[in-house]
Automatic annotation (TrEMBL):
Pfam families (UniProt xref): YdjM (PF04307)
InterPro entries: YdjM-like
Keywords noted in UniProt: Membrane, Transmembrane, Transmembrane helix
The keyword GTP-binding appears for this protein: no
Region forming the signal peptide: none
Transmembrane segments: 55-77, 98-131, 137-155, 221-239
Name of the protein in question: LexA-binding, inner membrane-associated hydrolase
Amino acid sequence: MMGSTHALTGWCAGLALAPAIGAGSVHQALAFAATTAGFALLPDLDHPGARASKLLGPITGLLCWLLRHASAGLYSITKGPRDERRKGSHRHLSHTILFAAGLGAATTAGTRAGGWYVVAAVVVFALLLAADALGDWLLLVAGGGVVWWALTASAEAELSQLTGWLGIAVATGCFTHCLGDALTEAGCPFLFPVPIAGETWYELRLPRLLRFRTGKGVEKFLIVPVFTVLAVLLVPGAWPGLVGLFAEPTVTAGG
């Protein structure tokens, strides 16, 4: 999938999940969804040309190098008899449920230890990732949202309520990325290390007729429009507001 599609589907997944973890206010739901959108791009940190690898220059570049070598090393010692002859540096370690769960657990531990400051740092980092994929307009919207938040609510108190739960947003973002890649022709080995058909890194994918190529017609003209609409409708209060906007006014007796 394209980076923008990963971020868009991650945003929708975050908004859909936010009420289930108690992020009931609009502020919390948007912060949770922004985190999910950003971390839906993070698994591609294992590719030097990816947006995530270039985001913070040499810092994310070094993380990319470390992740690629760790992934290649793990692949070399765990590949099954029928696994492909690959280096295993891209679309392997970071594209697994284990990676998503591990990064989510680390985020939970970090936010519980550091409080709302760490929560804010994770959200900002994720927002930068998402904005890099979706466009700078997202930063303008987020900036306006921060001002609105400061005027209408206690940002510190609401961010503190996300402490511990933000790990779920991070894990969900990574998992959403894997599901997206599993829809493409390349597939995704996100069930590692479960052995399937003699492969430890078995690429799960849809039946051949349902797969699509990254950046081609199905993604651009079907998946992106559908999730763009969902990205708006899933915002808390958006659907009732639209229904009310287009609903016919009730005529009262004598009116």
